Amino acid sequence: MGYHWDWAVLFRAVPTGETTYLAWMLSGLQMTVMLSLSAWAMALVVGSLMGVLRTVPNRWLARLAAGYVEVFRNIPLLVQLFIWYFVLPELLPPALGTGFKQMHPVAQQFLASMVCLGFFTSARVCEQVRAGIQSLPRGQMHAALALGLTLPQAYRHVLVPMAFRLIVPPLTSEFLNIFKNSAVCSTIGLLELAAQGRQLVDYTAQPYESFIAVTLLYLMLNAIVMLGMRQVEKRARVPGYIGSGK
Amino acid sequence: MISIRRVSKFYGDFQVLADCSTEVKKGEVVVICGPSGSGKSTLIKCVNGLEPFQSGEIVVDDVSVGGPKTDLPKLRSRVGMVFQHFELFPHMTIAENLIIAQTRVLGRRPNEAMDKGLKLLERVGLTAHAEKYPGELSGGQQQRVAIARALSMNPICMLFDERTSALDPEMINEVLEVMVKLAQEGMTMMVVTHEMEFARKVARRVVFMDEGRIVEDARTEEFFGAPRSERAQQFLSKILHH
Ligand SMILES: Nc1ncnc2c1ncn2[C@@H]1O[C@H](COP(=O)(O)OP(=O)(O)OP(=O)(O)O)[C@@H](O)[C@H]1O
Ligand SMILES: [Mg+2]
User: What integer pLDDT is reported at residue B167 of this predicted model?
Assistant: First the structure.
């Protein structure tokens, strides 16, 4: 097979001449990072809230949160993305719907992608938060209430902070997943890292270099997240705490 | 101060408390004992509304615990409670454990709360451990922190749930010392314990529970002199001679 390796292709100018292929790839990387981080922030906030609701002593709220998880966890990510991007704007009240459609196309793609990834991941975060809270001894809630804290205060100061410390490892893998899942958003035209990789193949006809470069960039993101989360894990460690007791 | 009238509680079909009645007057210490699973912890958790009950009434300082309009957080903030497993908050330092409710519930300023917390730590002999985490302390030390945490709220009465399984004697002593002192200062206390020495020393009455019932509720000297029920006799001879 006579494949002609040519790494210099990355530094060659794109057809319009104004920038290089490498710059395309880096702008894809930037898009992937922005999208993933904003969706992650959203997933943490919404997921924590829902995770708490899953455990509150109110059957209706708990059921509502359980239904939420089922919906967002069981519909394929790609289908969810199409719903957010293609279907929902049509169903919104006209003012909102046209407002969305009048936005810059990239902003439309980004917004739909962020909301989609955010909700999808929040359902998974929710389950981790629920598991973390439920793994705490029942007495912790009792102790908080016995001191006169209200139920929201007990969650806010006692249960949630401790639960988060216990679930750092599974949250790390959700955080990593969101970067990988963000590649799905190329299907609605968002030029994130995977999409830029494909574009490079089309323009340069050097598929190996393009995909290897994309792969390396994803691996690099992965490594950075892992290192960062290891620091978080270190800081979250509770001195002297062994397991969850009973 | 605490009045429990004909309280019954069920977990599904299982009756944990059956028609329990007793009373703790201001300044009195009442010890509750009985075999494992007899409902001692459940009973004292009903007193500050941590466990709901299906019938009967509990009144604490003229407030009905199960009442529909009762401000439970407020009531609980006035009733100190020490749990069987202490339940210190593991992610907070000892100092933070002592401060959290003072600032969040009573609205004390942080430095005021800290002063109070440190004073109480001194009282239970743990000043040196303020910056440690609960997991770094021994069981007896944790229990004393739990007592200090409850006292930080200036409670009108205290509920103690002691671990009944054998602990090392040293630990029992360091904790009992604190509790005896509290009793002597006139704190109203309801204490679940198998430490009969403690009961002899400070308790006005001893309540003996078995299978969710209050089988015996007698003055301390009567209880130790001649328990009326056979179950109490058996129980006493078992724990006094082991
Ligand atoms: N949440 C619960 N659901 C169902 N049953 C329970 C629950 N909590 C306690 N029980 C049962 O209620 C009974 C009384 O429990 P409780 O903890 O009050 O006993 P105890 O007298 O404090 O025992 P110990 O001396 O071992 O602490 C036990 O049989 C226990 O299994
Ligand atoms: Mg108990």
Answer: 62
CA B241, CA B67: separation in Å to the nearest integer? 44
Residue A181 three-state SS = helix
Kindly state the tokens that stand for A29.
């990387």
From chain A residues 95-154, the ones with a CB under 8 A of any chain B CB are: 137, 139-140, 142-150, 153
Q: What is the mean pLDDT of chain A?
A: 93
Q: Quick check: A148 and B77 CB within 8 A?
A: yes
d(CA A52, CA A156): 10
Q: What token pair was written down for B192?
A: 């679940």
Which residues touch A181 (CB under 8 Å, ≥6 apart)?
A77, A117, A120, A121
Token duo for residue B138: 């021994």
Gap between the Cα atoms of B26 and B33, Å rounded? 20
A160-170 confidence digits (pLDDT tens): 999 999 999 99
CATH class for the region spanning A7-236: mainly alpha
User: What angle separates helix B139-151 from helix B169-184, to the nearest 10 degrees?
Assistant: 20
Q: How far lies A175's CA from each of A168, A233, A235, in Å?
A: 10, 13, 18
Outline where chain B has alpha helix (H): 40-47, 72-78, 94-104, 110-123, 139-151, 169-184, 196-202, 220-225, 230-240
* DSSP codes joined into one string, B23-58: EE-TT-EEEEE-STTSSHHHHHHHHTTSS--SEEEE
- Asked if B81 has any chain A CB less than 8 Å from its own CB, the reply is yes
Within an 8 Å CB–CB cutoff, is residue B45 touching chain A? Answer: yes
Of the candidates B18, B68, B61, B26, the one whose C-alpha atom is nearest the C-alpha of residue B43 is: B18
pLDDT of A244 reads: 42
Predicted-complex ipTM score: 0.94
Which of B24, B19, B25 lies closest to B5, judged by CA?
A: B19
Q: How far apart are CA B42 and CA A138, in angstroms?
A: 13
B117 near B151, Cβ under 8 Å? no
Q: Determine the 3-state secondary structure of B70 from DSSP.
A: coil
- What is the rounded distance in angstroms from the CA atom of residue A218 to the CA atom of residue A196? 13
